[in-house]
From TrEMBL:
GO terms for biological process: lysine biosynthetic process via diaminopimelate. The gene is dapF. GO terms for cellular component: cytosol. It comes from Marinimicrococcus flavescens. This is Diaminopimelate epimerase. The record marks 157, 206 as: Could be important to modulate the pK values of the two catalytic cysteine residues. Gene3D superfamilies: Diaminopimelate Epimerase, Chain A, domain 1.
């Protein structure tokens, strides 16, 4: 494959290689993606984001984890793709096709991007989890962790509300929970601590990418779970490891909205050597 231009972007430190396949076909296999994701020999990313044409939207956005697997949603990556599209053609709103979902993005006057992420799926079969249950509090017994909540934002999330985030060994328990038989499609594992009536601190072990500095869909899942448990009302600031925050809102029965920054770090070219199959 010939050299391929890319954008290196991030949302609160959750970082992406973004490729534009709207005018040239870009097909990367899992091996190529893992090579590009390698932070020593490649470029490094948590997710690769591919923008392509859509018949029913301004663009189609797809996401791939650093282990080469596909992700059905990515909040921070969606804002980054929207930022590129807004830079190219400033306008009030964009419609983005992400899997089955049609998302809407808006660039605010302060430069942040607001995305309507669609409705959370809350049935146990939709998360999915292996055991029929109420996903507000799921019967997963794991060490001394409390029972998690389950949510799909187009991708699976388990959210554990803990008293003290510093006491959770995320790098150890994250991979065990990601691949726990309770989550048949694996899952993104969030650990949330309530800091106030409108403030949640969140750390996420991401499926297929490991511990990341931020996770947009994870922030949506945490807010939805906190609302369902009566811990917050319909809005919260979610503070992430990368610094900064996402503002998430959700009213039961409606879509989740996520607002936050999207940064362009640099533009580059993926070498033919890196893209060799
Ligand atoms: N970083 C993302 C979520 C990425 C997807 C995830 N690892 C999966 O496999 O579902 C975000 O900002 O939402």
């Amino acid at each position: 494959m010939r050299a391929l231009p890319f954008y290196k972007m991030h949302g609160l430190g959750n970082d992406f290689v973004v490729v534009d396949a709207r005018h040239v076909p870009v097909e990367l296999d899992a091996g190529q993606m893992r090579r590009i994701a390698d932070r020593h020999r490649g470029v490094g990313f948590d997710q690769l984001v591919r923008i392509s044409q859509a018949l029913d939207a301004d663009a189609r956005i797809e996401f791939f984890n650093s282990d080469g697997t596909r992700a059905g949603a990515c909040g921070n990556g969606t804002r980054c793709a929207a930022r590129l599209l807004f830079d190219e053609c400033p306008g009030r709103t964009l419609r983005l096709r992400v899997g089955e979902r049609l998302l809407e993005a808006e660039r605010l006057a302060d430069g942040r991007i607001a995305v309507t992420m669609g409705e959370p799926l809350l049935d146990w079969r939709d998360v999915p989890v292996a055991v029929p249950c109420d996903t507000v509090e799921m019967p997963l017994d794991f060490e001394d962790l409390p029972h998690p909540a389950g949510v799909s934002m187009g991708n699976p999330h388990g959210v554990f509300f803990v008293e003290d985030l510093e006491r959770v060994e995320i790098a150890r328990v994250g991979p065990l929970l990601e691949r726990h038989p309770f989550f048949p499609d694996r899952a993104n594992i969030g650990f949330a601590q309530l800091l106030g009536p409108e403030t949640i601190r969140l750390r996420v072990w991401e499926r297929g990418a490991g511990l990341t500095l931020a996770c947009g869909s994870g922030a949506c899942a945490a807010l939805v779970s906190a609302v369902r448990r009566g811990l917050v009302r319909e809005r919260a600031r979610v503070l992430l490891d990368g610094g900064g925050e996402l503002e998430i809102t959700w009213r039961p029965g409606g879509p989740v909205t996520m607002t936050g920054p999207a940064a362009l770090s640099f533009e580059g070219v993926l070498s033919a050597e890196l893209l060799d199959r």
